[in-house]
Amino acid sequence: MAFEHAVALTGGIASGKSTACNLLKLYGLRVIDADAIAREILRSEAKSIAKLFGEEYLVNGEVDRKALGRLIFGDKDARKMLEELLHPKIRDEIVRRSEEQERFGGPYIVDIPLFFETGAYPIERVIVVYAPREVQKKRLMEREGLSEEEAEARLNAQIDIEEKRARATYLIDNSGNLKHLQRECERIFKEITENR
After folding, report:
1. How far is the C-alpha of 72 from the C-alpha of 52, rounded, in Å?
2. I need a surface site. Which of 45, 101, 121, 160 has the fewest CB within 10 A?
């Protein structure tokens, strides 16, 4: 049965989910990466993207992710259309991979950035990687080269980090440096593996 031993990993954009996930992998936890699955499916749906939004969102037959990102973070209707196209396919693939992971027994991570937003996964235990909103915004502007307004639009497209924090089973505080994050991940790894 899918998700029996799964632990969801989520957080806000630029909260440090990827770094935390990589650290948890180093401790030996297996990971299903929803973003990687989404990228695979987005690539396979290039023609559908062009039909929905126009040929200008393709470059050499591939989806122009930056241009598409600007569109969907600025237009709720466009975001909803994209989600309706991609989310069922992403979910089906995550379920399939979860069923594979269940054969091994023991906990594994399902890294789902929009876990709370989609409400599509029956996973009881949830790790939230937390960084305060101002830290998220600063990281997002530096990492993606966004203006403050663009960063705010992306942050506003997700459930607020404080609400996610309140809904966490486990909390990884990533408001400090990398050493602090390593200690947080080690603590969470022990909690997860001791509370199977």
Report:
1. 12
2. 160
When the candidates are 3.30.465.10, 3.40.190.170, 3.40.50.300, 3.40.1260.10, the CATH number that belongs to 35-106 is: 3.40.50.300
Closest to 148 in 3D by CA, of 162, 156, 159, 138: 138
| pTM of the complete model | 0.86
The β-bridge relationship of strands 62-63 and 58-59 is: antiparallel
- Summarised one tens digit per residue, pLDDT across range 151-173 is 998 899 889 999 999 999 999 99
**CA–CA gap between residue 195 and residue 190 (Å, rounded):** 8
Fold classification of 1-29+108-195 is: Rossmann fold (3.40.50)
Question: What does the alpha-carbon distance between residue 7 and residue 109 come to, in Å, rounded to a whole number?
Answer: 5
Best CA proximity match to 135, nearest among 174, 164, 168:
174
- pLDDT, mean of residues 116-133: 94
Q: Where are the domains of the chain?
A: 1-29+108-195, 35-106
Residue 56 DSSP class: G
Q: Which amino acid is at 121?
A: Y
pLDDT in the model for residue 157: 84
Distances (CA, A) of 121 to 2, 18, 98: 10, 20, 11
